[in-house]
Amino acid sequence: MSTTAEETHSKPAREVADEAARRRTFAVISHPDAGKSTLTEALALHAAAITSAGAVHGKGDRRGVTSDWMDMEQARGISITSAALRIDYGDTVLNLLDTPGHADFSEDTYRVLSAVDCAIMLLDSAKGLEPQTLKLFDVCRARNMPVITFVNKWDRPGREPLELLDEIEQRIGLRPTPLNWPVGIAGDFRGLIDRADGSYTKLTRTPGGATRAVEERLTPEQAAETEGETWVQATEEMELLGEIGAHIDEESFMAGQSSPVLFGAALPNFGISQLLDTLVKLAPPPPAPVDARGERRPIDAPFSGQVFKMQANMDKAHRDRMAFVRIASGRFERGMVLTHARTGKPFATKYTQAVFGSERSTVETAYPGDVIALVNAAALSVGDTLYASPKVEFAPIPSFAPEHFAVCRAKDSGRYKQFQRGMAQLDAEGVVQVLTSDVRGEQAPVLAAVGPLQFDVVAHRMAEEFNATVELAHLDYTLARRTDAASAPAAHALSGAEVLKRRADGELLVLVHNKYRLRVIVRDNPGLVLEPLLAGGAD
Ligand code: GDP
User: Fold this and answer.
1) Residue 451: phi, psi to the nearest 5?
2) pLDDT digit string (tens) for 517-532?
3) pTM > 0.80: yes or no
4) What is an example of a GO molecular function annotated in this UniProt entry (predicted)?
């Protein structure tokens, strides 16, 4: 049965507003090994979305949340693509979007951040801020996104809490406002004081740590008696926080200037309920979306959504292409016929799916903040808008600054047609950015990627799907700058630089060997237009 836009809109707008209000759509930003998988599992477990640890995201079986869509992915044991995980917690629906990026990074990692309203910055208590976390944080910062900080692995020896807070403030200028405070040093973790009411949650490990830790709530008096000197030390530190004014401030949190901090340990499930409660209380529900012209579409307006990720071959049995859409406004009902804003063509949603773990289940209705996966979506590209009348189109998702470049050629020149088709498709899907120039010619485009693994994906898909085996030759460039037509000839003539056109949007990019070379170029050519691309690059 198909439903028209009008019928859908006649459903009480109140329902859409209420459903949107109880949703929280977020992602975890972290460096590999900080504990993202463990935290994901702990959140799901704690929220009782699943019954036993390991079922969703066990280290030994990552296929739970991520999808085993390619042999390559399995062989490497990493997640190339991401999925959305829905966690019901009381009355709240938590949509956790996975940011892929274990040993590697890709544009997908960044694009996911364009589809969330909040991020959890996950830090390893012994390591503090690490490179990948910093890169991802830059993207959050560029969008003024609210960030909640979770300092993980508190059960192991690590750094001093005050030192970690200091690092956050000094290095990224994010003012930390701890919500809880650890009792006992990292490695001898006793429990957490809730700064809001001074109550103490004593934590007792359960054997194996696979199930929820036993959390015992004590009054400050009881806690002082049980923990002795350790308690005194923790309360003294906490008083210090009061003096420096590290209090939660919702306005600056929402502006991405301050960050509520929680200490805990995902593996033994310490402090996970506090994190869930913080998401409910502080993380923002989906806002009314703003379109490309800067106009706000009410959250209860008819359906609109934006594709933030494309994925192919999720399931070997169905050679399809999936579009992941974040709902921006309105109620989605399976079977609705939507309009694809870029082409004006209708798009049927009969086979829409929700993605939970490796299971694909059919979704019947969904609301703002939810992610739906549309199958047979070859016509869609990252950034595209789908809507039910009235028309709306959202601003494109920015492409990120590539740091890896390679020339791509068809091994067999007789397969040039297949080669061209594959390049066009992978470009449209946003697997890599395709750059061309008259100098290099159409047969040898330059591929630009955020992470080198994207090239492996290209090679694999070109051979498997498009029947065009390719050769990739890495280029010795590490950064790109945007230029204009007037500056292009001069930029192209520079040594250690080259100008290419980005196929997707026609932007002219200057590729440069490294930042030292760039510095010299800028110094010696003050008139040249060389603008940085968006966050994510080494610049
Ligand atoms: P990811 O790479 O960020 O997904 O990290 P994982 O979740 O796979 O965790 C990396 C390692 O850290 C694994 O061996 C986890 O068991 C371990 N780990 C994660 N959280 C904790 C924690 O709270 N305490 C301790 N001791 N180990 C943890």
Assistant:
1) -135, 145
2) 999 999 999 999 999 8
3) yes
4) translation release factor activity, codon nonspecific
